[in-house]
Every structure is written in C-alpha cells, then in structure tokens.
Amino acid sequence: MIEVPLQQSDTVLLPERIGELTGLDQFGMAGELLAAFLAAFVVGNLMLAMTGVAGPWAKRKITAAFTDRIAVNRLGPAGLLIIVADSVRLLSKEIIIPENADRPAYDLAPIVVASSALLGFAVIPMGSGIHLADPEVGLAFVFAVAGIASIGLVMAGYASANKYSMLGGLRAVAQNVAYEIPLVITGMSVVIFAGSLRMSEIVAVQQETLVALGPVAIPAWFAIVNPFAFVLFLLANFAEVGRNPFDTPEAPTEIIAGYQTEYSSVYFVLIYLGEFLHIFLGGAIIATIFLGGPDGPGPESIGIVWFLVKIWGVFLLTQWLRSAVPRVRIDQLIEIGWKGLLVLAFANLILTAVIVGLIA
Amino acid sequence: MSTGLEKQTPGEVTEDELEALIGDRALRRDDHLNAPGFVIRPDDVQDVLFDLRDEAGFDHLSCLTAQQYEDRYESIYHLKKYDDPTQEVSVVVPTSTTEPVSQTAEPVFRTADWHEREAFDLVGIDYEGHPDPRRILLPETWQGHPLSLDYDQEKPQIVTLSEHANPIQPDHHDEESDTMFLNVGPHHPATHGVLHVKTVLDGETVVDVDPDIGYLHRCEEQMCQQGTYRHQIMPYPDRWDYVSAGLLNEWAYARAAEDLADIEVPEYAQIIRTMGAELCRIASHMLALGTFCLDVYGDFTAVFQYAFRDREVVQDILEDLTGQRLMFNYFRLGGVAWDLPEPREEFLEKTRDFLDELPAKIDEYNDMVTSNEIFQVRCTDTGILEPEVAKSYGCTGPVARASGVDYDLRRDDPYGYYENLEWDVVTRDGCDNYARVLCRMQEVEESAKIIEQCLDLLEEWPEDERNIQANVPRTLKPDADTEVYRAVEGAKGELGIYIRSDGTDKPGRFKIRSPCYHNLSTLGVMTEGEYIPDLIASLGSLDIVLGEVDR
Amino acid sequence: MIGLLKSMATTMKHALDGSTFTVEYPETAPDVSPRFRGVHKFSQERCIWCRQCENVCPNDTIQIVMDDKRNGEQYNLHIGQCIYCRLCEEVCPVDAILLTQNFEFTGDTKHDLVYNKEQLKAVPWYKDIDPLESREPDRGAWIGEGEGEVDYQ
C-alpha cells in the first residue's frame, strides 16, 4: 500500500494528527477516512455549538445590552440554560408545511443552507492544529461553498408557495450576485499579497512582523496592511450573509421574514442555524485572510482561542450594526453593490497589484 | 348680521356673503352651534361646495356626518378653512327616506370619497356619481346599515366563506398581467394594527394600493350614543386612539359636549388639561418615532426601545396624575376629576425632571436617527405628499404640517389655555417621510415648552382658587335638536366630534371625525410608484392607530 | 458617514454603561401611584344598595340583585369586562366600592373573572396602600367616620 498524502503542505492537519493519536493511520485508506470523519465531527460540532450559544443566548444578551434591557436570566447562570430550553422547544414543535409547497425543494432548502456553511469551515485554519484540509485552492473553495447557500435561499423562497418568501428569495439572489463579485475580488487582493490561495500560507504570511514599535511588534495582518480592502470586504461580507444594514432578504417589517416565512420547527432551526453558521463562516474568512487567523500573543497552542475571539468579534459587530443602522432599500442595496463596492473592489485590486508589482 | 364688512379681516366671509353666495340654492337655514348651516337640495351638492371652496375659500371638508331622522336622511358637510378654522359653515343635504340618494362631493374634495363610503356603510345614504361605492368599515356581505333607524340589531349576520370574496382567489396565476397581488396585512408586522393593504406589485414597485379597513370597528359611535353625557361617554374616547393619546381624545368630547351644554370650565382646570394633553402628545409622538424607526431599521432595536423608555416616564407622570397609564378617564365635563396629586411639590418636581432630561434625549435621537445617513437616504423623497393633495384629502396634524400646511387648531381655533402660552407651530416643507419624523420630534420640544409653562402656572396658583370642576348638574339634558361640531388638535391631527342632542340625557347622533382615517386615505397617493420598503415606511410615517381609523 | 458612526457610538454607549430600564417582575414589584385603579374592593357594611354604581357603569359590569324588601343579596362584578374608569367609586356616596392598586389577578377562563360579593370583599390591598387616603383626602369627614380606621373587613 502506498500512502498518497492529500496535500503537499507542511502543516500537520487535524485528520492526520487524529490518525496518529488513535493509531487509525495504520489501517490505510479506511483509517484515514475514519480519522477525517472524526476530525470533521469535532470541527462541525464546535461550530454548531457556537451557533447554539449565539442564537438563543448571545444574540439576546447582546441586543439587550444595546437596548438597555436585561434579557434571558431565569434559567441557569446568566440564563445560559435557555439554550437547552430553546432547543427542546424548537425541536418539539409541529412542522407545518404549506399545501402548495414544492417538495422536495422545500425540504432540501434548509439542509442546503446549513450544510453549505459548515462545509466552508473545512479549509479554515483555526489554530492549535485544528485544520481539516488545506487544498491549494482553499480561498476559492470557501467562497464557492459559501455561495451555494444562495441556491438554498432561492429554493426556500420559491418552494414555499408564499409571495413574501418569493420576494425574499429573489432579493437574496439579487443581493448575493451583486455582492459576491466585490467580495471575491477584494479577496483576490489578499491573494496577490500572499501569493497563494492556500489558507495556511495566507495565515503564515500574516504572522511576519510589519513594524516593530519597541517591544510591540505589529504583525502584517492584511487588515493593517490594507485597511481599505478590509472595510470593503467587511461590507461585502455583511451583504453576503444578509446582516444589517443589508438584511433585505429577511426584512421582517417589509416582507415578514422573506424566504423563511413558511418554515417551522426543525426546518426553521436548520435555516436559523445556517444563518448563524454563515455569520461565523464570514467571520472565519475575515479572521483568516485579514486578521491573521489564529495569530495572536501567547504560545501557538492557544491559537484557537484567538481565532474564536476574532470570529465573535465579527459577530458582535453585526449585532452592533443591527442596533444602530437602518436597513437600506433593495434598490439602494443593489446600487451600492454594483455602482459602489464593485468599482471600489476593482480599484483596490488594481492598486494592490501595482503596488505589489512595484515592491516585489 | 350687523357686523360691518370693514371690521372683517381680509378673507373672512360673513354670513350675509355666504347667503348671497348660495342664494336660491339654500332651501332654508339650519344653524348649528358652531357654524351657520344651509339646507340645500341633494342635486346641488357639488355646485354649492365648488362655490364655497373656490369663491369663499372653504377648502377643508372637515367632516361629513350622516344620520337618519324619522322623516328624512341627512348628510352634513362640515366645512372649514385651512387658513382660519374658526370660520365654519355646514351644508345640510336632506334626502327622502324612501330614496336616499344624494350627489357625491368627491370631485370637490377627495376626502369625501371615504366619508361617503362610511356614510353609505353605516347609515345607508347612496351618493350618486361616487367613484367607488363600496362598504368601508363593515364586510362587503353585511346586511343593512347599522345606524339607520329600521336596522334590526338582533338579526345575526351570517357570512359564509363562499359568499365572501376570498382574498387569495383572484390573484393567483393571472396569465395576462405582469403584476402580482400581495396582501399586506391584516397580519403583518408593520401595519401598526389590523390593517389590510391590498397591494399590486410590479416586481418590487407598488402599482396600486387599496387600504382595507374596518377590522377594528368597535361601534364606538353607537356606544357613545348609548351613554349618558355626564359620565358614561368619557371613558370611551381613551379607546379610540388607544396608544397614549387618551387625554387629547377626551378633550375632543369634552369640548363638544361643553359647548353643547354651555358649560364654562374653570381656568385652573384648563391649565391641568393643557398640561395633561401635551404630556399625552409627547407619549404619542415618542411611540410614533419608535415604531417608525422599527419599520425602517427593521428590528426591535435601540431606537424603538429608547423611545419606549422615554414614553414610560411620561406614562408614570400621567399615572400619578390620572390614576391610569393609558385609559385615563380623567376629564369630566366642566373640568377634570382630580387636582394634582399630593404632595404637589413631588409631582411638579418629577415632571420638571422629565422636562430637564428631555433635551439630552432629543439630542440622542438626533444623533441616532435624523443625522444617520442611511436613515436620511431611506426617508427623504419617499412618501411625497404635496400640500394641495394633503388639503384635498383632509390631512391634519403632523402629516399636514410636514407638508407645509400651517394648520394647528391649538393656535388657529384656540381652546384650553393654549392662547396664553408661548409656543410655536412646527411646519416643515419637505413633504416626505423625513419631514414627518422631524416635525414630530420638534413638536415634542414645543409640547415640553407648554408643559413647562403650565407647571409654573400651577405652582403659583393661589391655593383657594384651585377649582377643578365647574358646577355641572348630575344629569345633562341639552335642548333637543341642538347640533355642534367641535374639533381639537389630537396627537394625529384634527379630532372632531359632532353631537346632536335629542332632548334626552344621551346623544341622538354622535359622530367622530378621526384624523387617522383621513391621513390613511392618502396612502395610495403617497406610495404608488415606490418600492415596498417605502410603502411600509410611509405607512409608519402616517402614524395611524387602527382603533381610531375604524372606531 | 459621520452620522452613521455617531449613531453607532450612541448605542455602544448604552451597551457599556450597563444600566437597564426594565425591571425583574415579580421579584421587584413595580411601584404604582396612589391613584392607580386596579381590582375593586367591596364593603358590604358600608353599602346602602342605592344602585348608583350599577347605573353609572358604562358597560354594565356591575350587577346587583336585591330582594323584594330592597335588601341587597348579590353584588357581582366582572373584573374582566370592567374598563377601570372608576365611575362607580366616584358616584358611591359611602365609599362602599373602591378600586385598589391591585393589578395582579388571573383566571383560567373569563368566567373566573366574574367576582361575587365575597370575592370582592377578599381582594387584598396592593402593598398595603389604602387608596382612599390619596384620592379624596377630605371625604372621610362627611362619611362620618372621622379620624377612625376604616374597616373593610
């Protein structure tokens, strides 16, 4: 039997490590697969647990802080047990499926929405050795996978046989198309800097020191190297995941809840989970390509902590924006996307290319 | 009338001139307490109203009251001037009981559209030439007209589903058209109650809007007709505009009934009324701001909660004063129920504290809302309501004032203690959603000024002259067939009450002129051609309360 | 852009100052004004069965049953139908019916909210506030009870 490593990278990936630790790597392909599955299981559950905390608890607490309220505090310390209570509540509800729903599209949509986001985490280096796969086209993969979600949204919107859902689904598509391009193009400017699409290399490049101010070494995070691209990417990302001020596909006061109007019980949970996963995936991408991934003070082994801090920072930012920024209208949103962000993204790309070309 | 022409200010029309203007078309006079009334033939309606509007300047059809007597039906057009609402004239149009048909006034005043639909719906007068003669408050299938004399209250109304138009039916799969029919409401997060807006969309653009009201029709007029003047009517006005404008509504009834029964209200009570009413206005505008931001921001977020927090303080003060947070029942005919609560100093201080903190809070709103660029982009140049359109639709209150119509009954038709106080009427000429928000926020500041002055007056008022109620008999029986129409400036606009007494201790006809009703009727003009989000925002900026629209 | 940042700064300020304006009911019972109008309390000893409250009630919430000698037998009040206008208290010449500050009442069905005489007598004061004192300070004089304690059984 000949061992064929999946990657040529020098980083040790989580499946390999699990394989070593459990001795599964002795069993060849099957062992490798099992190890990969175990690793994916660990990462997937970590992310699901985070959304579980974020959805029923953190979001409430954060919103309450912004609005001078108390929020959940009855069950458990600081109301944390509400997570359990809410899960039981949501999962025990009856699934109501509209009469004219177009099945199986209606049933598949929540799964597509939730799983597409989970897939994206496969190539994210989270520090402390938690990194599932490191393909050469890591960044392209993560954008591609995250983009699948819009298919899920339009499926949900179309299949629900509800006009509000339809409007929401169409809005979601229009929005994703308009913002995917600036998102990817801004991401490309990072690739020009790093010279690679491989996530581990993008992270590695950022760990170098940019300037040393005495004892404080400022790392070469791309957010610091090119803050303009960072802001562009942040904006495009909020639109991509449909958060305020770009939450038009949901727009509860306009089209009730958009594509998720007709979803209930488990399906609703899946869509809801998917949304949070997308926020976190967006946060993970931002952390990886702009904020140095798991980079931070302290030993390398606590990288995962820094990584999570960065993701949660992005999540907090979404909630902060939610508290203070009105939703833009759909036509304004599209206008900002095509006439504003796209142009700026190209300008940024060309400038970056020129500057990198001059320096290198 | 002996008043010479030379004493009149320009633009003022004497009764002689009115008589000359209407001429032979006036069959006889039927004066009301508030205005001269002219009885005309049912086929002269448009003629006379056109003349009154164009020649004499009565450009505000404030209200249309329809009622049935034993021998006739009657429609009364209460006309006013936007420039000077103290000048009023009533045009009375009697029609026979057997064939109640009257000419429509819709070509003269757009607002007559909804008015006449309501008159047809509740009383049963047909308006010839009306462009849209449907029922408005009751369902299409309703049998009979509830306010007509021969209406059988006992007969059950059975509306089967097959008889009733299914709102989902016609819109599905209309192969011919490119438009989509959408029911916004009655269960929709942003309709501010049970409002149903039948919307036709072309993509995201609104092509046609038809507000379908009546889901909250609670027979308020009939309930008032069954209550005694002295006590039993006063609790109900609180329930028209129920969100927090209670005292303003009570004042509308109090003003009409006090004029009807000729009751003089003590000055001290007027000051308390003025203060209470302005507190209610602040509470109501805070809610308007909060819910409008809810519509634009999209979630129960900061602005909404902050507005509620500030409204809460006002409600605490009102609770101390009246004993209730929303349904005050605080006014009495001839005064108010209670003096300021003891210890007075504490109450005055609490209210002053609120006023002292208010400017900082308003600054905060300005930081958060009005100076926010995205908010500005969302609100400017959407929901445009031109001043002439606003007048034609009978718009009043902040909606009209934000369109540059300088009309405020507190100043133009003074009541209470307003004329002795220093304050300004806020007008803006933006005509859009943004102007309406700003107008309300500035009115809050003006209200605070009024309250401040009232507090000073109340504090210094000599203790032995604190007379809170006039001496009013326990049973009021105004003379039969006295009619009065009186309006006050409610939180949403001109809230008018028409009362006809029939010699008993209960009104013969009680008609409510609701400002929200008229403001809502402009929704179509404001939003056609705009996007769905603007439809929602414009609806929010009108600040309607369905309890008052449907009554 | 500046306005946008200003609004974000405002909400952040609120988030950081840690103050809340909501309270934890029922742990912190809200303060109600002395004038607040809650559930009724009835005093049979004071009632003279003049039926004025029944007459004035705007929506027929109060129902009084008397025998042929005009002695009161029943005094029923539907506290779910009541609109809390306080007119019954206002017209009562002997303060037999009072609106307490008590706003905490529940029922599984609407019929549970139909209170009879005994239930109305048993309504507790809220935080021991006697509404009579704050509402009409000089009324005690003409009832003839003087300074003495008013006993509501």
Automatic annotation (TrEMBL), chain A:
It is a multi-pass membrane protein. GO terms for molecular function: NADH dehydrogenase activity. InterPro entries: NADH_UbQ_OxRdtase_su1/FPO. It is found in: Membrane. GO terms for cellular component: membrane. One of its GO terms (biological process) is aerobic respiration. Keywords: Membrane, Transmembrane, Transmembrane helix. Its main location: membrane. The chain crosses the membrane at residues 33-58, 108-127, 139-159, 179-197, 209-236, 266-291, 303-321, 341-359. HAMAP family: NDH1_NuoH. This is NADH-quinone oxidoreductase subunit H. It comes from Natronococcus pandeyae.
Automatic annotation (TrEMBL), chain B:
It holds the Pfam family Complex1_30kDa. It catalyses: a quinone + NADH + 5 H(+)(in) = a quinol + NAD(+) + 4 H(+)(out). One of its GO terms (cellular component) is plasma membrane. PROSITE patterns: COMPLEX1_30K. Residues 39-156 form the NADH:ubiquinone oxidoreductase 30kDa subunit domain. Signal peptide: none annotated. GO terms for molecular function: NAD binding; NADH dehydrogenase (ubiquinone) activity; oxidoreductase activity, acting on NAD(P)H; quinone binding. NDH-1 is composed of 13 different subunits. Subunits NuoB, CD, E, F, and G constitute the peripheral sector of the complex. In the C-terminal section; belongs to the complex I 49 kDa subunit family. This is NADH-quinone oxidoreductase subunit NuoD. It comes from Natronococcus pandeyae.
UniProtKB/TrEMBL annotation, chain C:
It comes from the Archaea. SUPFAM superfamilies: 4Fe-4S ferredoxins. One of its GO terms (molecular function) is NADH dehydrogenase activity. Residues 38-67, 73-102 form the 4Fe-4S ferredoxin-type domain. Transmembrane segments: none annotated. GO terms for cellular component: membrane. One of its GO terms (biological process) is aerobic respiration. PROSITE patterns: 4FE4S_FER_1, 4FE4S_FER_2. Keywords: 4Fe-4S, Iron, Iron-sulfur, Metal-binding, Repeat. InterPro entries: 4Fe4S_Fe-S-bd, 4Fe4S_Fe_S_CS, NADH_quinone_OxRdtase_chainI. This is (4Fe-4S)-binding protein. The lineage of its organism: Archaea, Methanobacteriati, Methanobacteriota, Stenosarchaea group, Halobacteria.
